Each structure stands twice: as C-alpha cells, then as structure tokens.
Amino acid sequence: MQAPPTEPANADNAFLYGCRTAFASVFSFVIVFTYIGFGALCHDYGFSVGWSMLSTALQWAGPAQVILVTALGSGTALFEIAVAVALSSVRLLPIVVALLPLVRTERTRAWQLIHPVHYMAVSVWVETMRHAPALPRERRIAFCNGVGFTLVSLGVVSTAAGYYLQAALPAVFGAAAMFITPISFLTSTARNSKLLMEKIALGLGMVIGPLLALSKIEFDLLWTGILGGTLAYGVHRWRRTRSAAP
Amino acid sequence: MSFGMEPYLALILLGFLPSEIWRWLGIVLGGGLSEESEIILWVRAVATALVAAVVARLVLIPPGALAAVPLGVRLAAIGIGFLAFLLIRRSAFAGVLVGEAVLVAGALAFGP
To answer: Do B50 and A184 touch (CB under 8 A)?
Structure first.
C-alpha cells in the first residue's frame, strides 16, 4: 500500500489516488472472483452479456444482482422480485449515512453526492472510510469516486470474462464458476455475521427456503426472508430482555 | 423475457431502482439514523435469511452447467466448504477453495 500523496493538488489527483488505492485493495481480488461467478450465472440463466455487465454497473450490489437473475430466470412474480431486491439492499442505507459526514463540506449540494453514493457497497465504503480521513476534506469525494469507479469497472470487466469463460470452457469448469456464488455468499455472510441473530437467520433461511420452495407457496423467497428474519430478530430481542432482567 | 427491451426494463425497475433508492434515501436522511436502530436490525436479519434462501436455491435447483453435477456432490461441496471455513480460521477464501475442490473432484468422479 502506497503512502498518501502529499496533499493531492486537485480533484484529478485525488481521483487517481483513489484508483491506485482500489487496485492495491484486497477487494479488487474479491470483486474479480465474485463477478466471474456472476457472469457465469447470467450466461446459464440465458441473459445477454450486455445485460449482465449493465446489471453490475447499475446495481453494484452482489446479493441484489443474484436475486434478480435467479428470480427472473425462474419466473418469479415481478412484485416479489422488486421487494426481495429492495430488502437485500437496505444494508446500503446505513453505509451511506455513515459516509456522508466524512466527505461532505458546507458547500456540497445533494446532487453532487449522487455520483459517489452510487458506488457505495461494502468494498468501496471500507476503503473510503480507511483512507479518506488523511485527505483534505474537499478532495474526499473525488477520492471516493476514484475507488468506486475502479472497482465497478473491474466488476463489469470480470462479469464479461465470466460470461465468455462459461461459454467456452468444459462443463465442469462452468459448474465450478457457477458454484462461486453460493459458496462465497455462504462463507462471507457467515463471516460478517457478528450477532447471533444473523447466524440464526442464515441457518433458518437455508432450511425454510427449500421447504417453502418445494411446497410451491407463492412468494416463497419473500416469506423465507420475513419468517426467518423475524424469528431470528425475535430470539435477539428475547435474549436481550432476559439478560437485562434482574 | 425473450427479445427487445423487456430484460432491460426489468433491470431498471426491479434491479436498479429497488437498490439505488436506499443510497438516495441515505443522502436525504443524512445523519438521522443509527446503525443499531431496531428497524435496521430487523432488516439485517431478513436480508440474511433472504441470502441464505438464494444460496439454498442455487445449490438445490441450479440452472445450466451446475445442474449437471449430481445433487449429492453439490450438497457435499457446500457442506465441506462451510466446514473448512469454520475450521480454517473462519477464512471465506479457504471455504470457497475447499468447496470448489470438492465440487470439481465430485463432478469428475460421479458426473455424467
């Protein structure tokens, strides 16, 4: 990791410093790997390569993208897809809320934030929160844009790479590329689960999901989320009340 | 979803907007929301269960190339991969690597 440049003289320098930071970050590796898997998934669900790349550029939220592709590909009700995607992306809200005090100046207008905020995913957020405090406040948005633009571009290129690899490689490699999504989602979600509540939700979702899917209940994905999530949250509340009681 | 603009319309309306709305809402709300608020906690639990359901769906009823791998191999790969994650310093990378190795070996041994 290189030292911060001596006070980036202008916004362009801060942007470029953001690009270099992104390439040096561990997330560049994670994103290439994840989006190769996503591209492979899109290929086998029958989407076009342009659509797949646009999904990465516009959505820029792994779980939301995989939900969209699997649900559209298996004929899920449109309303259910929109709600499931929205629920999976609520986590972006607190990330943005935590970012703003770091990058905003008194002269920043709301529309100037729409661009950096689009890049907000855990990866870009972590790198911005780590490096931006060392920069002058009026250069931080440009820095954030540099990190975000670089990682999103890597994601878009990797999506195309995964898509074409899936078409070209023997079936066993295709299966391996598609398997990246479930195994990496499972392990990274488990690792990010700090609260017992999240671990319970993870376990419940894996049990309730297939049960509801097999019983052909309408909106099975949504019901799994709401049922599993609310049960897990209930356990969290119950444990908290019990430990607070004398 | 066979031709024309339909998939792109679906991408904008069902994929882009439902995600992006939270980023915009974050600008509007500014500093007015705590990450520990009850509603955010509940949503975090719901989102985790949703992701888990998608993982299960991809393993149990996958499309394309993954569907050609026998169900037993897919289940073994996800199970042993997760076990490796737990045993090897909770490293997501180790879990992915071991899971993938089991899947490829199983597909070659028991595949079509």
So the answer is: no
Q: Are A51 and B11 an interchain contact pair (Cβ–Cβ within 8 Å)? A: yes
In a domain, B10, yes or no: no
Nearest CB neighbour to A68, from listed B15, B59, B96: B15
Provide the domain count of chain B.
Answer: 1
Measure the CA–CA gap between A71 and B57, rounded to whole angstroms: 10
ipTM of the complex: 0.89
Structural domain span for residue B103: 34-110
Contacts of residue A165, defined as CB under 8 A and 6 or more positions apart, other chains included, come to: A36, A39, A40, A173, A177
Contacts A177 to B, Cβ<8 Å = 65
Among A137, A157, A67, smallest CA distance to B47 is for A67
**In angstroms, rounded to a whole number, what is the distance separating the alpha carbons of residues A224 and B60?**
16
Cα separation of A58 and A105, whole Å?
A: 27
Residue of B nearest to A229 (CA): B46
Residue with tokens 């975000």: A148
Three-class SS state of B72: helix
Asked if residue B45 belongs to a domain, the reply is yes
How far is the C-alpha of A50 from the C-alpha of B70, rounded, in Å? 31
A96: three-class secondary structure by DSSP: helix
Q: What angle do CA B27, A31, A91 make, to 5 degrees?
A: 30
Report in angstroms the alpha-carbon separations of A117 from A23, A64, B41.
Answer: 20, 17, 22
- Residue A7 per-residue DSSP state: S
- The domains of chain A are located at 12-192, 193-246
pLDDT for A12-42, tens place per residue? 999 999 999 999 888 888 899 899 999 999 9
The series of mean pLDDT values per 10 residues for chain B, 112 residues long, is 77 96 90 69 88 92 90 97 96 93 95 74
